[in-house]
Amino acid sequence: MNTLATAKRILTQLRHDHRTVALMVLMPSLLLVLLRYVFDSEQMFNRAAPALLGVFPFTIMFIVTSITTLRERLTATLERLMTMPIGKVDLLLGYAVAFGLVAVVQVALAATVALTWLGLEISGSVWLLLVIAVLDALLGMALGLFASAFARTEFQAVQFMPAIVMPQVLLCGLFVPRDQMATVLNWISDVLPLSYAVDALTQVTTSSEVDGTLIRNLLVIAGCALLALLLGAATLRRRTP
After folding, report:
1. Of 140, 130, 124, 144, nearest to 211 (Cα)?
2. pTM
3. Average pLDDT along the chain, 241 residues, taken 10 residues at a time
């Protein structure tokens, strides 16, 4: 019940923040449309779009969640909530549920636009594509919750994007296949969760087979999101007696 109450509070706040909702829900779709006409080639778009269905929601959810959570830390909203009979994990799970619902809408809209209007073709299951993209958005959300603990201003929260998000985007295999990177970079990419998301999305696009590698990638993404949530819970401390 505490988790659902927290989720309801966050969703109520988002309902009155139309710009944030528009950023989270519409921006991935708009970026995909822009990408399609930048390439002006269905073949190149089909090659890049599946990975970006994960990268765009991951990045946007990280930015919005880190700033939103930091704002609640700075205004002592989280601290006041911790005086109530609610656990840290329940609190962050409430955030996860709220932003997770937004992520479902975000990814569903982006996938619908890509598959219908922009002509994206995939060999695997559309539902599995949606599941992976939603997991990726949830991963960005969880990392944003965790990163908010180390920022003191909203500007600092945005500064974590180059440190946490951009290395993953550059090394996930989006621009160059990971096995063609320098050995050190390949090793680094192996410990970055976005690499497994891009691998999973690429596999669903090119094959209808659900094998052990795909299941492993899904478990890694979900496990990293859960770990980030638990680490975020560990950072929640009351600062006043």
Report:
1. 124
2. 0.84
3. 80 85 89 88 83 88 85 70 66 82 89 88 87 88 84 81 90 89 93 93 87 93 89 64 42
